[in-house]
Amino acid sequence: MSYETSWPASAKTATARATGVKAKPLSFVEGVAMIVGTNIGAGVLSIAYAARKAGFMPLLFWLVVVGLFTTVTMLYVAEATLRTRAHLQLSGLARRYVGRPGSWLMFASVCVNSLGALTAYMSGSGRLLQSLLGLPPSLGSLLFFLPAAGVLWLGLKAIGRSEKVICICMVLMLLLLVGATFLQPVTQLAHLLEGNWLYMIPVFNVVVFCFSAQYIVPEMARGFSNKPEQLPKAIVTGMAITFVLLALVPLSVIALNGLANVSEVATLSWGEALGNWAFFSANIFALFAMLTSYWGLGGSLLTNIGDRFNWQVDSAARQRLMAMLLVVLPPFLLAYSGLVSFVNALYIAGVFSGVVLSIMPMLILQNARKQGDMQPSWQCRAWLTHPIIKSVIVLLYLASAIYAIASLFNLLPSGW
To answer: How much is the pTM?
Structure first.
C-alpha cells in the first residue's frame, strides 16, 4: 500500500479540534498495537476450525482479500477524519457527512458488533480461566472483567500502552508455539493443500469478523492529531502484522494435526500435540487476545456512545460512568443469561453490520472531500477510490450477507 501526500495541517489546528472527546497522543507503536490487539481476538483461535472443510489455501485467500479491502475502507475513514476538525467517531462522521439516518445505521452497526464480541469475550474468558485454574466460569469472567474495564476507564493512552505491552507478549508466545510446531516430526506441510474450495464462501464471514479494527480508526486519529501523517502508516503496518498472525495460527494447527483433527479452539490442538507447556502458553495467549480486543472494541463503543448522545465522556465523570455501564454490563449479563436465540439474531445483525461498514466509509469520504473543514496532511491515492475497487467491495460484502442469511435458514450449505 502506498500513500499520496498533499499539504499538512498544522499541529496547532489539528489539536484544537473541539468535542467532548479530547486528543491524547499515541506513539506509532501504540497505534499499531491498537490495530493488532483489536483484530487478534477470539476469532484467531477459531478460524482453523471454521476452515476445516475448505482447507488452509481458501482461508489464506480470504485473509488476503478481506485484509486488503478492510485496509482500504479504514484508509477511507482515516482521510475523512483528517478532513474534519472535530474528533468524531464513526457515528459522528456518518452524521456529519451522510445524515441522521446514516448516523443511526452506523451507530447500530458499532453497537451490534461490539456487543457481540464483548459478550463472546466475557463468556470465553470464564471458560478459559475455568480450564486453567479450575474456577467457576462466572468467577473467571469477573476476574477478566476487572482489568478489562479498569483500563477502559483510564482511557485512550492507557489502552494504547496496555495494548503495546500485551501485543509484544502475544507475538513472542505465538512465535514460540509456531516454532515448536514445526519442530514436531508429525508436522506435515502437505496438510495445507487439503480441503475443498467449494466450501470457501462460508469462511469469508468468519475472516471478516477477524478484521474488526475499522471501529478504532477515529480513536487512533485523535491519538495522532499532532502527527496525522502517521495514521495511515500505522493502519497499514497494523493490518500487515494482523495478517501474518491470523495466517500463522491456522497454518501451524492444520500442518500439525491435519484438517480431520482440528479442534474447535486452536489452543486445544496445540496442547494435545505439544504438551502441557503449550496448553498453558496457548491459553494465556488466548486470554491476552480477548483482553486486547476487548479494549479496542470497548473503547470504540464508549466513545461512539459519547459521540452519538453528545456526552462528555472524557471530561465529565458522571457521563463517562454512564457510558461505561452501557459498555461493560450488557456483555457480562448476556454471557450468562441463557438467551440461546440471541446468538442467531446477533449473527444476522452482524452480517448486515459488515455490509454497513463496507459501504458507509465510501459515502463518508466522498462527502468529506466536498464538505470537509480542511485539507488533510494525507489522502488516499486515486486508485484506492476507483469505482471498480468500490464496486468489488460492495458486491463482495452483499453476496456474503445473502449467502450467510440463506445458510442460516438452511437454504445453502453453511460449511460448518
So the answer is: 0.82
